[in-house]
């Protein structure tokens, strides 16, 4: 791979000047942290921050701004930011044997196995390698790691392994359309570039659900965050942290925050953590000092000036409400399949998950029948030659190990498709 702009500036420090309560600052902080790019952060009100802005002709209103040596950037999007910090942001060619959309565990497993088995493989990921798993503070039930492993560590291992075998990992390129063509498939991206491949694996996972409360929504990135425990935790030291959700991701975040927050308060709509959370994690939470679990409670309102300052909670059984002071709210309330970019030739179940293999024939309400005389391969969608793996697929396991297994299996099925 050719040297990038960042390769030429390795001895200088990347600095970001931004208001910590700015949603744009949050987006950049998350992007850099998840792509393992170290930097220092300065507030525009700090003397050092103002000095940098003045020296490069920027004002406070221009933040966030990135600085490195004599370079400066006010980013306008993920691709510009990715290129500026030296990430691989464009495919090296327009034609591949295998194109993978999505860089979570399923996509990365497919990249490793595809490249290691001789397929010219490219993976497109909009944000960062790792998917939701990359944001996990501690994955404790993944085979081979008895003491657990953080999502970032697992992601780093997967990234290095895929690159070792020659897989091309493209960050910031977002696929928005897929169509069959004579040579296989064409995947159109938001930068108007089209990438062609003989086969495709869709591993786009799911998008985070939000609380959908107008007064809460206005604090997104300003005290309200979704699935971002690892990137925001350093800022929460010594503060009270509220966590909404009762599944494993919420429990893992609670344990992680307990090491730095003054107190962690879990707000769970169900009457018990046992409704959705693994028993090992329930036991761990019960042994963790500083974690309070409040069941049967939901958030109904939020207030503040420049950032979150207060939450209104309601008891779901009695209807009683209370106001609590809060600067930090992290919600882990599930996700929906990221399939909106695919057209109706891809059959889905009633929740939007892609139907594959034998499920195409057995699930009622499929929008598109299987078009060939041969039966679909196990993870094949209703578009022959396009496979689905991980959380985007109907009847998936919602576990890292399941996603890795499906990504690996999908490559085996790709070989069968290409050789038949």
UniProtKB/TrEMBL annotation:
Keyword Endoplasmic reticulum: no
Residue intervals of the FAD/NAD(P)-binding domain: 96-407
Keywords: Flavoprotein, Oxidoreductase
Catalytic activity as recorded in UniProt: [thioredoxin]-dithiol + NADP(+) = [thioredoxin]-disulfide + NADPH + H(+)
InterPro entries listed in its UniProt record: FAD/NAD-bd_sf, FAD/NAD-binding_dom, Ferredoxin-NADP_redctase_2
Keyword Lipid metabolism among record annotations: no
One Pfam family this sequence matches: Pyr_redox_2
Protein name: NAD(P)/FAD-dependent oxidoreductase
